[in-house]
Amino acid sequence: MPGTAPLPKGRIEIDFERCKACELCIPACPKNCIEMGTGTNRQGFAAAVFARPGDCTGCAVCAECCPDVCIQVWR
Ligand code: SF4
Ligand code: SF4
Asked: Domain 14-74 falls in which CATH fold?
């Protein structure tokens, strides 16, 4: 519909408990959707968070670069 904002094409979920806060996914995302969070998981790491869901294209670059396989992608 003209004038309607396009729906996000992708969605990710970051496994809060598995994330080791290596930060590799942050610069990897071409849409700058991921940021480091403030909560600490059981391993003692401030896990990454999906900060800008509206911009995600579902390209899966973040999931491919995560050494701990914490990111799941839907598109
Ligand atoms: S799927 Fe692509 S656009 Fe979405 S968060 Fe991951 S790297 Fe960014
Ligand atoms: S690449 Fe994986 S382990 Fe590293 S900060 Fe991102 S989600 Fe966490």
From this structure: Alpha-Beta Plaits (3.30.70)
